[in-house]
């Protein structure tokens, strides 16, 4: 009898332990009044251009969406580390930002990237966000700058505000970053739209893709260009713009063009300074809120 009682007690204890382990943890309640827009960019370690581009764009978001808290995230961990060690500035990466918003019980999160194209960084962003499906009542991702045909038309309209009046023998050359991703075709499409809208002497090249400076110089020669104004087609006027485009090194675009006999001027301002470009990012965020763009909902 004692042996039977002991066995029954062991069984009851084991059953209780099993039942306890199978219970689901209580879901953390979300605050329906807490909404955020997570503004995501590659980032930059250059303080001056960060203020004029990323911070200026974030300020526009704060003005446009007063019911949302504006949160910053960079995708470049190297830049995040530099800012932390050198300047004592803390910036979230995307995962850290989403973890923070989740811990603070935000119910709605709109993620608006300041990326130029639907390239590798955007693909990675979507993959990271997918891991948080179900953690928010509403989780949506806006589109990069150049996504639809309408975007290209609006970007060219915004760029017109910074283009100088060009004589027949003068040109503007935009420097893009370039990518191994098939979205690199974005640059060629942009040049096509520029020409189609009448900006015949405006050309687009890339640092790390195609077309490069060599192809751009072929177009300059074909069009009998003598003077070139270099402009970055990047959100910020950071390392590539300062050094690869406008630097004094032998392989910078400015130096190569000067050695080839061109008169060269430099416009050292990132796209993030252009209010027309900022407007397009704001529009994409509005579309994401309305559910017209990439959506991840519970």
Order of helices and strands: HEHEHHEHEHEHEHEHHEHE
Please give the number of β-strands: 9
Q: Could you estimate the helical fraction of the residues in percent?
A: 40-55%
Count of structural domains: 2
Rounded average pLDDT: 91
What fraction strand? 15-25%
Distance between the termini: 55 Å
Strand order of the largest sheet: 2-1-3-4-9
Q: Which structural class best describes the helix and strand composition? A: alpha/beta
What Rg, in angstroms, do the CA atoms define?
Answer: 25 Å
The CATH level-2 architecture of the largest domain is identified as 3-Layer(aba) Sandwich
Main sheet overview:
5 strands, mixed
- CATH domain class of the largest domain: Alpha Beta
Low-confidence stretches: 1-26, 294-298
CATH topology of the largest domain: Rossmann fold
The total of helices stands at: 11
So what's the overall shape?
Answer: elongated
Organism: Caminicella sporogenes DSM 14501
GO molecular function, one term: sirohydrochlorin cobaltochelatase activity
InterPro entries: Anaerobic_Co-chelatase, Sirohydro_Cobaltochel/CbiX
Pfam families: CbiK
